[in-house]
Design a protein that fits this description.
Elements (H helix, E strand, L loop, with lengths): L4 E2 L1 E5 L3 E6 L5 E6 L7 E7 L4 E2 L14 E8 L2 E3 L14 E12 L2 E11 L5 E14 L2 E11 L4 E3 L6 E4 L10 E4 L12 E7 L6 E8 L9 E4 L5 E4 L6 E3 L4 E11 L5 H12 L4
Antiparallel strand pairs: 1-11, 2-3, 3-4, 4-5, 5-6, 7-8, 7-14, 9-10, 10-11, 11-12, 12-21, 13-20, 15-16, 16-17, 17-21, 18-19
């Protein structure tokens, strides 16, 4: 934790991990781990009381939940729309998650969740393990994810326009917002080191910046990004084409979410990315 860090604590239950500020127990985030369903983070609070940066089950995409992992066409099964989209319900699988660990060290919160992905007939497809950490300072919340996938048999991920770590923010068309990548573009389907969204938050009206960073050690980095019409963002290993994990092996990806308490410049986000990129793989 940095010198200006705000110490965090963690509260774990059977179906959720809650990260709070140690001093006053004010909530920072909740990672829901519902039995038989997709794990997801919501709400995530921006620093300084700026508001909640996540949205759960918006009307335009009711299967999207704050910050989460979603995948498509995994050995023919779908793990994106939770059976709620009639176009995909016949192939949608299910989830069997469990909290493996949760604790704090030097004011940094860490926790791990393992999820078994099951085809719609109950057959195991693969496992994923999400190892998270959270650090908070006066103006910045940093969430780090190490995401590992593996299985006893080969797993093939089909080419798709999206899939992977996804952030759904509370976009409102009348309030607006804007996405921009490290390469200065807001276009969907482009490679970049990071993508940031600036948006006013409905619960406070304050405008903040939220950036998702791709680690240069990831397979295929810099990744190709999904930026959708409601400013949902996703660093997707599937956009560039089909990929696979051989039997008995695993694939590991690292990402950072930087949540600022107000608006920041691309230069500031670049500096955060350079720090992240310089950390040991």
């Amino acid at each position: 934790m940095t010198d200006d860090g705000v110490p965090l604590d963690i509260e774990a239950a059977a179906d959720a991990v809650t990260v709070v500020r140690a001093e006053d127990r004010a909530p920072v985030l909740i990672h829901h781990v519902p039995a038989g369903a997709r794990p997801f983070l919501h709400p995530i609070q921006a620093p300084g009381g700026a508001g909640v940066i996540t949205e759960d089950a918006p009307p335009h995409h009711p299967w999207q939940h704050g910050l989460y992992i979603g995948l498509n066409d995994v050995n023919g099964a779908g793990f994106w729309s939770e059976g709620l989209d009639p176009r995909r319900a016949a192939i949608d699988g299910t989830f069997d998650p469990v909290i493996e660990s949760a604790g704090t060290e030097d004011g940094v919160a860490t926790w791990a969740i393992r999820t078994r992905y099951l085809a719609n007939d109950g057959t195991p497809v693969f496992d994923d393990r999400q190892s998270w950490s959270a650090q908070l300072s006066a103006g910045l919340l940093v969430l780090d994810l190490t995401w590992s996938l593996g299985a006893d048999h080969e797993v093939v991920f089909g080419a798709y326009d999206y899939g992977g770590l996804f952030l759904r923010m509370p976009f409102r068309a009348d309030a607006g917002g804007h996405a921009e990548s490290s390469e200065g573009t807001s276009a969907d389907g482009q490679r970049a080191r990071w993508v940031a969204v600036r948006m006013p938050l409905p619960d406070t009206g304050r405008e903040v910046s939220v950036a998702m960073l791709d680690h240069p050690g990831n397979p295929g980095s810099p990744v190709t990004w999904r930026i959708d019409g409601e400013l949902g963002i996703c660093p997707s290993p599937s956009i560039a084409g089909q990929w696979s994990i051989p039997a008995g092996e695993q694939a590991t990806f690292r990402y950072r979410l930087a949540v600022f308490g107000d608006l920041v410049t691309p230069e500031t986000i670049d500096a955060v990315w350079r720090t992240y990129a310089g950390e040991a793989a």
